[in-house]
Design a protein that fits this description.
about 100 residues; 3 helices; mainly alpha
Length: about 100
């Protein structure tokens, strides 16, 4: 896509954002420098903030945990049986194919 494909409004928006200069040529915008926080907090303040954030978490209740655990266990059993079945099938085919 070239600049000729853009309409006036799109070119105005690009100029406003700094992507085009006054002549309508592409201008490279400088990436903003990411600064690291220079101020570090102590262990007590960190643990307080962690505790405050953990209070905001929507924890599942007991029936949800039980239901999700059952789903995970059933899924693991089904996939284990599936992989075991394929292993047995391909092993039997390989044994038949390579037997003398």
């Amino acid at each position: 896509m070239s600049l000729d494909d853009l309409n006036r409004e799109q070119k105005r928006q690009l100029k406003k954002m700094g992507a085009l200069d006054d002549q309508g040529k592409v201008a490279r915008a400088q990436r903003p420098q990411q600064t690291r926080p220079t101020e570090r907090v102590g262990p007590r303040q960190y643990l307080k903030e962690v505790r405050d954030e953990m209070r905001k978490v929507a924890w599942p209740n007991r029936p949800e945990v039980t239901r999700y655990s059952i789903v995970v266990i059933v899924t693991v059993v089904v996939y284990t049986a599936l992989v075991g079945g394929f292993d047995y099938l391909f092993g039997s085919i390989g044994e038949w194919f390579y037997s003398s």
